[in-house]
């Protein structure tokens, strides 16, 4: 996909007409005075960074459990990489960098310990009570569960940041109110009763670049971590023509290069190609749509920031490689089974005896609740755990804890 470099916003300070405007934000659920030194989206980003939920990301699994080594990505380092790519895309497209960065920084708040394994296990535990969805949990965290401010629960983000958090992957329902990817999680529906996030429309372009930045980041760093772990080899990467071509390019330019440097040269080229592909697609779609406001982006009939057909096929091939060689590797599956057991055991134990939860808040708020409400509180408590805390809690309460090493 070609890029029109004449329209790029690198260092220009220009703002496109379709950019979200922090000075015309739809505001916050609880009205607050404006800041003398920061825009509304800057304030959102700063609040996100100072949350407990953000700090907990450093001890939550991305793919490899923390005991595997200090150099593998965690949810925190993944989030930082997503934010960097999102900000680069936002600058190139002349949209609000702070909103794009904020959505990127908050997008994984709702993830459980042990990555998608923990999420699947908790979803199964909560299935009789509405299930578990990490995106809905992110919304619960920033609107209810973070307790830092005197005047409100959550962190009172702007409408635009909340919209981006909930809809960065596209509309959640169609014009008839039917879920586009299955039933809309109840916590999202409940929140929209008091602050309508317009679930049938696309999110801002800032949220869209955060979403595609997530794909770019994990496709790249999971290959990097896979090579580091030994689950992937350079020979395996040859199965993906896109990666094979970049390896040939690096070998031609640097005939003798140590493996770590060789891997990094591949990764940096992969990110560059994918970022440039998204910019080219977005420019073409913007030229066709000719949006005059952020509202025009929301009302469009398709996403603006996405891969070209060719890069989307490469994305599918990379994901297929990662699933077959890493995510479904027998050793990873063994560790995943142990992690799922930890989550399942803890859920059952806390439901049976809420006093086991090590917090006066959780114990006091669960007393007297019905079973479904109690289950949701237990789910909140478990989802907020880091990997290390979950393992320690299990060891404290059970005679045997699965070995995740």
From TrEMBL:
Keywords noted in UniProt: Hydrolase
A Pfam entry, by short name: HD_assoc
Gene Ontology MF, one: dGTPase activity
Top-level taxonomic group: Bacteria
Domain HD: 75-219
PROSITE patterns: HD
SMART domains to which the protein is assigned, alphabetical: HDc
Biological processes per GO annotation: dGTP catabolic process
UniProt xrefs under NCBIfam families: dGTP_triPase, PRK01286.1-1, PRK01286.1-3
Family listed: Belongs to the dGTPase family. Type 2 subfamily.
Protein name: Deoxyguanosinetriphosphate triphosphohydrolase-like protein
Source organism (scientific name): Rhizobium straminoryzae
């Amino acid at each position: 996909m070609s890029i029109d470099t004449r329209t790029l916003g690198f260092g220009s300070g220009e703002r496109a007409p379709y950019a979200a405007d922090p000075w015309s934000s739809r505001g916050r659920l609880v009205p607050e005075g404006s800041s003398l030194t920061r825009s509304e989206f800057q304030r959102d980003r700063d609040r996100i960074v100072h949350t407990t939920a953000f700090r907990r990301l450093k001890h939550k699994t991305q793919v490899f459990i923390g005991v595997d080594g200090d150099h593998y990505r965690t949810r925190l380092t993944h989030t930082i990489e997503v934010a960097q790519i999102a900000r680069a895309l936002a600058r190139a497209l002349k949209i609000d960098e702070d909103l794009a960065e904020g959505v990127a920084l908050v997008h994984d708040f709702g993830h459980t310990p042990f990555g998608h394994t923990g999420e699947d296990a908790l979803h199964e535990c909560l299935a009789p009570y509405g299930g578990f969805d990490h995106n809905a949990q992110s919304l619960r965290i920033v609107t209810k569960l973070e307790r830092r401010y005197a005047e409100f629960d959550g962190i009172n983000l702007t409408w635009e940041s909340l919209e981006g958090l909930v809809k960065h992957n596209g509309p959640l329902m169609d014009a008839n109110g039917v879920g586009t990817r299955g039933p809309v999680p109840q916590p999202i529906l409940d929140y929209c009763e008091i602050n309508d996030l317009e679930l049938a429309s696309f999110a801002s372009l800032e949220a869209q670049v955060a979403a595609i930045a997530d794909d770019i980041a994990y496709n790249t760093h999971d290959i990097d971590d896979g090579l580091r772990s030994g689950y992937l080899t350079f020979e395996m990467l040859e199965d993906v023509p896109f990666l094979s071509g970049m390896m040939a390019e690096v070998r031609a330019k640097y005939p003798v290069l140590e493996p770590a440097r060789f891997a990094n040269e591949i990764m940096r080229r992969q990110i560059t190609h994918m970022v440039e592909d998204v910019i080219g697609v977005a420019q073409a779609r913007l030229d066709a749509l000719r949006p005059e406001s952020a509202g025009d982006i929301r009302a469009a009939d398709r996403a603006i920031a996405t891969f070209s057909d060719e890069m989307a096929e490469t994305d599918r091939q990379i994901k297929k490689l990662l699933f077959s060689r890493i995510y479904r590797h027998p050793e990873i599956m063994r560790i995943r089974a142990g992690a799922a057991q930890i989550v399942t055991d803890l859920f059952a134990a806390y439901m049976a005896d809420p006093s086991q939860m090590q917090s006066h808040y959780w114990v006091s708020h669960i007393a007297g609740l019905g079973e479904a409400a109690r289950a949701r509180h237990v789910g909140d408590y478990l989802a907020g755990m880091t990997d290390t805390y979950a393992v320690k809690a299990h060891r404290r309460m059970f005679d045997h804890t699965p070995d995740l090493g």
